[in-house]
Structures are given as structure tokens and as C-alpha cells.
């Protein structure tokens, strides 16, 4: 297996993975929208995407976004997306992508990585095995713009 930093020429490898990721989280399949979203992120360098390949077949990805902590005055990364195709789950792909993201964070000398996940996501065990700590000190809120 190989992990690589995705570039614009990897877009067609990423689109089906990203679309399936969104479908996994209850969104309707939309390859054109997935392509447009990823193309914009990559073109504007608004995110970092790592692509996992097994014998040159795309089998997973993770997407990171840079942000800042006003309190600590340091940059950190939000691991927004992590997806592995069902047939390659439990084969170390997710672990490799997470470790690669941690290495990237260390190379940048950023404060750390943050992620959020569903309460029933079985990957929580993997996160904790790799040193991620569940934040029990803060609540997470989200305001949804419903227009007008």
C-alpha cells in the first residue's frame, strides 16, 4: 500500500471515494458536485488530501483543513474526512492514513489534529489506539443557517 499527497491530477481517483464517503454519511450520490468540491479545494490549496493506493487502486483517503487556535496562538489541522472502501477495511488502510496525517502535522510543527465522528462510529477504537483522546471537557455546538 502507498499513501500519497493528492494533487489535481489525482482528482478522478478521489471523486468516487469522496462520493461514496458522502453517501455513507447519508448524502445523495452526486459525482459532479464531488468533483467540483474537490477540484476547488485542491486548486485553491484549501485542503490537504492523502490518497491510499493498493496496487495503484485507490482504496481510501483523508482530507485535512488548516485552522487556528486563538487561545494557544497555534495552527492545527482538522481531519474532516476519512474513508476506506468497504473491501479494504480492517486491512490497515485507515491506520496508515491516520499515521500519515500525524506525520504531516509533526512536519508542519502544528499543535495537533482534531476530528469529530458519529457516536456509533466503530473507528473510535482505532483513534484511541493511535493516541487520539476523546475531548470530554468541551461541548461541540453547530449553528445551521436555514436562510432568511
What does the secondary structure layout of this molecule look like, with pairings?
Elements: E1 2-5, H1 11-24, H2 31-43, E2 48-54, E3 57-69, E4 74-84, H3 93-108, E5 113-114, H4 124-129
Parallel strand pairs: 4-5
Antiparallel strand pairs: 1-2, 2-3, 3-4
Task: Fill in the keyword field for this structure.
single chain, 148 residues, alpha+beta, Aminopeptidase, five-stranded mixed β-sheet, 33% helix, globular
Account of the 3D structure:
With 148 residues, this protein is of the alpha+beta class. It has one domain (2-129): Aminopeptidase (3-Layer(aba) Sandwich). The protein is 33% helix and 25% strand. It is built from 4 helices and 5 strands. It has helices at 11-24, 31-43, 93-108, 124-129, and strands at residues 2-5, 48-54, 57-69, 74-84, 113-114. Strands 1-2-3-4-5 form a 5-stranded mixed beta sheet, sandwiched between helices. Helix 3 (93-108) links the parallel strand 4 (74-84) and strand 5. Helix 1 (11-24) packs across helix 2 (31-43). The chain is globular and about 40 Å long. The N and C termini lie far apart (48 Å). The model has no long low-confidence stretch (mean pLDDT 94). This is Putative N-acetyltransferase YhfO. Keywords: Acyltransferase, Transferase. Its EC number is 2.3.1.-. GO terms for molecular function: acyltransferase activity, transferring groups other than amino-acyl groups. It is an enzyme of class 2 (transferase).
Amino acid at each position: 500500500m502507498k499513501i500519497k499527497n493528492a494533487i489535481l491530477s489525482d482528482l478522478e481517483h478521489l471523486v468516487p471515494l469522496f462520493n461514496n464517503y458522502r453517501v455513507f454519511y447519508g448524502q445523495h450520490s452526486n459525482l459532479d458536485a464531488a468533483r467540483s468540491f474537490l477540484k476547488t479545494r485542491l486548486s485553491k490549496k484549501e485542503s490537504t488530501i492523502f490518497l491510499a493506493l493498493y496496487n495503484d487502486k485507490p482504496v481510501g483517503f483523508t482530507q485535512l483543513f488548516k485552522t487556528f487556535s486563538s487561545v494557544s496562538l497555534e495552527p492545527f489541522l482538522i481531519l474532516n474526512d476519512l474513508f476506506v472502501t468497504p473491501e479494504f477495511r480492517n486491512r490497515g488502510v485507515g491506520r496508515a492514513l491516520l499515521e500519515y496525517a500525524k506525520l504531516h502535522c509533526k512536519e508542519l510543527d502544528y499543535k495537533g489534529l482534531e476530528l469529530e465522528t458519529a457516536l456509533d462510529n466503530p473507528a473510535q477504537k482505532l483513534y484511541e489506539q493511535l493516541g487520539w483522546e476523546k475531548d470530554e471537557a468541551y461541548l461541540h455546538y453547530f449553528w445551521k443557517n436555514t436562510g432568511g
